[in-house]
Fold this protein.
Amino acid sequence: MPTISYQLYSSRNWDADETFAMLAEAGYKEVEGVGPHYEDLPKTKARLERFGMTMPTGHFAPDFIEQEPEKVIEIAKTLGMTGIIAPYIPPEERPTTMVGWTDFATRLAKMSKPIVAAGLDFAWHNHEFEFVPIDDQFPQDLIAAASPDIKFELDLAWVQVAGQDPVAWLQKYSGRIIAAHVKDLAPEGDCLDEGGWADVGHGVMDWNVIKPALDAAGVTRYVVEHDNPSDHTRMATRSLASVQAF
């Protein structure tokens, strides 16, 4: 049975104690960490214990992983993480050539080494830009080819935003996906105040097809996310109900 986590980035605009209390009441047992929650480790650890939650995975900026791997590992082990996930590179830093993407993939492979040596998983979390082909190759494939130590947290909605089939990419990297971001896209023109995202199960993603592909790919952790909810309580509760109904 897959576990269900909640990406705390979704609630970045709300107070942390309020967020954890809301998630506990909704029924979440896991959360996925992001930067602000690493600033005061004793407080975050106490918050996890108080609300009966774990934080098995966390997002860390690539530069942070690259420059301070010992600190990243310390944070992960203090909070009980088993997976370190590099989540994003800003537009001004994104490669635009095959050579550039190959060099970036090599960087990821190198930064994964101390993480894996510490007994932790290292994964890359995609957006849409990794699925824009350059010289007939996808940057996502270049990242995968750089090292077998690079695993993935596949963000299914961003794959669909890129015009790709989430099922095909689940099949392609079956056995190499440590978690999937389950999030949803609103019908075109809807939810514009929320960036066009929808609560899971209330958008256009075809979960009846995606769920069997998740199972076949061996994905055992589903991470609920919404990039810009206007009401995080509504989003968290409705999304959890949808994922449980899968």
